[in-house]
Amino acid sequence: MIEATYLGAVEADTVFHKPTHIIVYHKDGQEIPYKNILRSLEGQPEQDMVKFSEFLCSGGEKIKIVYQNWLSDSLKANTALPVAEYEVLP
Question: Where is the BRCT domain (predicted)?
Fold first, then answer.
């Protein structure tokens, strides 16, 4: 995370502090079910915030849930890469 802050990233304390991404750590080749990731968030309000973020956040921005490879590859590329290949989809 330290490297990401040099590129302008800010760590949010909760999903209510306007995060753009939630980064999920996993082993190579491991698939973590979306429902398990949601359950790992603190409670129902946090889960709802992530599921319905595009409706609840100003500007309609969806909170993207991505695997950590997105962060490491973005740092190597020195820019935020598109999330499609890294996103944990519902």
Answer: 1-88
